[in-house]
């Protein structure tokens, strides 16, 4: 009797500990009135590279596919992946490279919709340093802005400078986030150059505050800078969730594929008109320009190109402290799947 009472107390204590520590089962997806309730964290809702997230909501494709989706903004992809691993969100719109980096840490994360084959990132140089920095080689000894250490912009910065024989000991990486914090860092001598996206790129270039050093918004620019494709914007989820809820993942994939197809058949002006008005806070014309300059990065079908996945592994195998020691055991087939997108592409458009 004493032993039964003892174990009962142990079970109660463990249950209380799990509740207080906020432990969640990543496979669990809440339901309401028979509809899945999905929370997706986006590595910067206002960034054009992640435009398909909000556009899908604005076009009503989540609703038409019988799912309710809540979008949360977060400026760092590294922070978003933490929220995914903790079970606070069911999915992340972020860079594909996180799936490889996390596999190196024995975490299984899978891209289920690959929205772009290129990063959509630009290395900007401040106007004050533009005369002295005319090539990547000139970044030696400089303060370089990245979203955060361990972020995709960090890996890309290392890849760019690495081609010029540099390591992180040859410059200083500065966490400046994105948007206004990036602009403030560049305009107040916090960084000499840095990696960011539209609409920040359009805003700073048009105002004369910065100029473009490296442009990875196109396939040609990306191949020149990185030696190949670098698939970036994706919807990734924990493998446990994907395996446990394929029917829900299919609904999400179908919604995003519909958006990618819609983007390819509409003008930047039409796309901008669908987005929340506050996204054009720096001016409607500037926002349309930023979409026009970056929209070509979206692939239109959601499919991963194996060549691109391999190039991401090659780059992380050199520059990610997590991936480098274990690169030979990384299984790329576990980092993405095309099955849901292929099914969505077979479904007639409504």
From TrEMBL:
Cited Pfam families: NMT1
UniProt keyword Ion transport present: no
Residue runs in coiled coils: none
Keywords, sorted A to Z: Signal
Domain SsuA/THI5-like: from-to ranges: 52-266
PROSITE patterns: PROKAR_LIPOPROTEIN
Subcellular locations according to the entry: Periplasm
Keyword Signal (UniProt): yes
Family: Belongs to the bacterial solute-binding protein SsuA/TauA family.
Name of the protein described by the UniProt record: ABC transporter substrate-binding protein
Source organism: Nocardia amamiensis
């Amino acid at each position: 009797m004493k032993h039964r009472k003892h174990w009962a107390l142990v079970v109660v204590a463990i249950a209380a500990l799990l509740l207080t520590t906020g432990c969640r089962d990543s496979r669990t997806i809440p339901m309401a009135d028979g509809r899945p309730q999905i929370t997706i964290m986006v590595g910067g809702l206002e960034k054009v590279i992640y435009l398909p997230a909000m556009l899908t909501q604005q076009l009503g494709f989540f609703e038409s596919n019988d799912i309710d989706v809540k979008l949360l903004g977060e400026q760092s992809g590294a922070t978003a992946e933490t929220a995914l691993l903790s079970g606070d969100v069911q999915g992340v719109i972020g860079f594909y490279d996180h799936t490889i980096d996390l596999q190196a840490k024995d975490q299984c994360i899978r891209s289920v919709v690959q929205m772009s084959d290129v990063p959509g990132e630009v290395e900007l140089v401040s106007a004050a340093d533009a005369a002295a920095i005319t090539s990547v080689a000139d970044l030696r000894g400089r303060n370089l802005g990245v979203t955060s250490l361990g972020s995709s912009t960090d890996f890309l910065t290392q890849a760019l400078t690495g081609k010029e024989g540099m390591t992180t000991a040859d410059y200083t990486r500065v966490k400046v986030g994105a948007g206004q914090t990036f602009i403030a860092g560049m305009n107040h001598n916090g960084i000499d150059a840095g990696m960011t996206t539209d609409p920040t790129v359009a805003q700073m270039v048009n105002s004369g505050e910065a100029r473009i050093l490296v442009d990875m918004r196109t396939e040609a620019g990306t191949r020149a800078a990185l030696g190949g494709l670098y698939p970036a914007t994706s919807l990734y989820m924990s493998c446990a969730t994907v395996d446990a809820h394929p029917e829900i993942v299919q609904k999400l994939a179908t919604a995003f594929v519909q958006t990618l197809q819609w983007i390819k058949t509409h003008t930047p002006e039409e796309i901008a008109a669908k987005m929340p008005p506050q996204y054009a806070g720096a001016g409607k014309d500037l926002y349309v320009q930023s979409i026009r300059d970056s929209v070509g990065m979206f692939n239109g079908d959601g499919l991963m190109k194996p060549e691109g996945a391999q190039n991401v592994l090659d780059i992380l195998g050199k520059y990610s402290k997590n991936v480098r020691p274990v690169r030979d055991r990384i299984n790329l087939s576990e980092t993405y799947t095309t099955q849901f997108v292929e099914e969505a592409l077979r479904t007639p458009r409504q």
